[in-house]
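Quick check before the chapter quiz. The format below is the same one you will see on the exam, so make sure you can read both the input and the output lines.
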Amino acid sequence: MFIPNPLASRNGRLAAFFCLYITEGIPLGFAATAIATQLRRHGVGPAEIGAFVASFYLPWAFKWAVGPFVDVYRSRRWGHRRGWILFTQIVMVLTILALIPVPLPSGLGLFTAILLVHNTFGAIQDVAIDSLAVNTLSEQERGLANGLMFAGASIGQAIGGSGVLFAMGYIGFDLSFVVVAASLAMVTAFVVLPMREPPAPHVEPPVEGRLRKAIAEMRGFALESFRSFLGTRGAFRGVFFALLPAGAMSLGLALQSNLGVEFGMNDDQVAMLNLWSSIVSALAMVLGGWLSDRWGRRSTLAVYLALMSLPVLYLMWELNRHGYVMPRPPGGAPMPELIRILWIATMAYAVFQGLMYGTRSAIMMDVTNPAVAATQFTAYMAMMNLAISIAANWQGVAVEAWGYPVTLLVDAITGVLCIFLLPAMKRELHFDDGHAAARARKFAVVLGVCCLSYVLYRPNAALFGSGQSMMGTFYTLVFIGSALFLLAGREALGEAAGHWRGLILWAAPLLLAMHLRYPVDKMAPGGLRSVAEVALYLVPLFAGVVLLAVSRRDWRVPEEAEVVAVAS
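Here is the expected output.
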């Protein structure tokens, strides 16, 4: 059967990107709703489920790193972006099918690892899809196309979550993986394969040349983004805004399905709740964007973010009133009153979250430098995905340590903190206010102090009890952020870094290697563990000293250095 090239017509392009974003939403809904529900039904605790959902979102926080490779490596036979999309979707289908023989809950570790690989390729696919959209959509199509793409992702999450939960009652748990894989394969067969991209206009360099070009683009990305983030007050505040939770998040993550299972809801009831909340949220996204255009983005977003805490506080109040504090084993008798309360809280939350969603993205565009829009905005979006991963992780731990009401209260309070950053996040006409150097120095000091604080935290970690997981997440963010800051700052400082320029190349990879502290904690006592323990103290101490030292360097980069950096 002949299928026309969807990129050849306006309607074809709109339909193609709508369908491609459905493939991005299906796995997210499948993991966060369908799988999380089944895990809770099998007795897996909220902390483990939270870590599972967190790991699923984590690759999206680093998708910017593959951008240069998607740009540079291309296939003449399969097409530039089409080749990447085709390759990633095939891997996504295979990894979903590879989950079928993995037993749950005993094989949760392997299950999570396979899904992590799956979602890593999903994040790469997202980069390729966005690149294809930029290069094929006309200016007059982009507004409608972006709306359809967000709608496609929302529908995909409903299919992967609610749709799969409905289907499980008829086909069983194992066959649900086949349904998800078949949904992805259908888009591959009927949308991706018929695509025809224009051929690349230039001859490809050899593999070695392409690798050097990709690495050079990574350096350019780091330098451009670094300067853009520090160039204005709004852009700098945007970093912290993106890393903070965008409103209360608990009712948008696994906590919702956990409570549904504990309250005695069956799979169809959980699916129906997820389906209607997805529909309501999608409609509210359109309304929220329209209201923000009419009444101002910052003021409306502040209201939306505040409103997101109300259903969370309502649920907290009702759970306290009914004496429902700590997680309970699934399989008990249905609790109609608590189910009704969960429906009210979830539907109200869906409205307010939907109102917030598109407006938040528009705010980030306002503080983004148009000259480096692709890199800076992608980084903001990646940080927001990291914030979701962190929230899923800490909430799962907190539920088991503090109970549901306290966790909901903390979520409601932390969710509104980002509102205090909004006044500075106004649309900029100039993207360099002359204070970038001062911001860089202050940021280096803060990161340096945080690295040094780990030397005090590690021997006293037991004092934090079950909160150690949350502290671990915090320090992971510190170490990754410090490494990226040092690498980008090295390029920005140039010769002004002095002899610290060479030390930065040692400090950055060592900071990234600090993630190995988790396997070290599980090692048996002995000489190897003793050496590793010493390294876990020396690395943050060394990095902290380097950060404090570079904070005292001259961050005012000469214009000629900027020209050389851009040319390279």
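If your answer matched, good. The chain has three domains: 1-196, 221-429, 436-567.
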